[in-house]
Amino acid sequence: MKAETDCFGRPISSPPDAWFDVVEGVSNDNNKTLNRTTKTSRCLNLGSYNYLGFGAADEYCTPRVIESLKRFSANTCATRVEGGTTELHSELEDVVANFVRKPAALVTGMGYVTNSAIFPVLISKGGLIISDSLNHNSIVNGARGSGATIRVFQHNTPSHLEKLLSELIADGQPRTHRPWKKIIVVVEGIYSMEGEICELPAIVSICKKYKAYVYLDEAHSIGAIGKTGRGVCELLGVDAADVDIMMGTFTKSFGSCGGYIAGSKELIQYLKHTCPAHLYATSISPPAAQQIIPAIKVILEEDGSTQGAKKLAQIRDNSNYFRSELQKMGFEVLGDEDSPVMPIMLYNPAKIPAFSRECLKHKLAVVVVAFPATPLLLARVRICISAAHTREDMVKALTVISEVGDLVGIKYFPAQIKTP
Ligand code: PMP
Description:
By secondary structure, the chain is an alpha/beta fold. It is built from 13 helices and 14 strands. α2 (87-99) packs parallel to α10 and α3 (111-122) runs parallel beside α4. The longest helix is centred in the C-terminal third of the chain and has 22 residues, at 307-328. The relative contact order is 0.16. 4'-deoxy-4'-aminopyridoxal-5'-phosphate binds next to α3.
């Protein structure tokens, strides 16, 4: 039989590898389990971004989403400026602005596009973007599309950011007397492939000193960390007013889809007249918008329950427990305390299929990440912990991961393994 090929004549592997597996459905228990097409049905899901466990079973959000579907249908089939703005869109923008403590917000239909479409209207030739070396692909593409000069600083290293800035401009020069029309420093709240929390206080103070704007992507941190879920500013005590442009997505902690930009009223007004994601793309679907509004109410306990604080305590405790248990087992685990993103290093790309398939055999669905999302020899398993995971789920998962780790040979720190 002739092998299937792509448009360049390269063979396509068949059957699909474990990480391209097709998901048949998610269960009703807040995305905690998946039904997959492999013989291993109903796996415990350790790969979902659903950090707070908002899912089909949510008693507060789901009925409201169904109601909005009946009222507005699945999509507006229009851009925001061509009849695609429902009252849900306006309400969502107010709710988001209030949640992230900025004067105004703009929501779009997709997180990726929020980043990739905004840079070309924020900055252009003659401007300077200084980007963390591990920023997400959507930021990289947005920055490239802007035509501005791009410099990259060492991942989450404020001292290197300062070195670059001091080389590129004279210290303390006012914005109008230096070689750049504008400087934007771009960072993420929690780095999606590293699980590290941004060194935001130091970055903000350097940006103040050098009069650069701060752009913060909170895709993985908003809703997931901070006393009331307000993200990295709240966690690290940074005043939201010191972050000029706050970007985030609704695809993680809020269990929905879409993205936002929050900032000054002037900035948002400007974006409403220039940002292609607002002017030329269909607006966020009403049911997706409706999922987010009550989700934020739950987080802030404006729904009349005490679920918000419980969810936030649960995600923090789960993350810290899971990370420390993995470390005790001898795995090399990246990321910071409180971060629900925890990569376990595999290094060797050849270990990827073995790890993933062995986990699947034990009904554990994990995401493995490799080149080009990471450098070639820094392949990893990326665990995402949710508030929906119980202690029992985690104990079961840790037992499987430990066995598979022995089999695949990735316990790189045997000294940490406790002998009875
Ligand atoms: N920014 C970051 C840091 C991300 O990790 C992602 C995707 N996970 C995005 C933006 C794009 O968001 P979305 O998947 O919601 O389009």
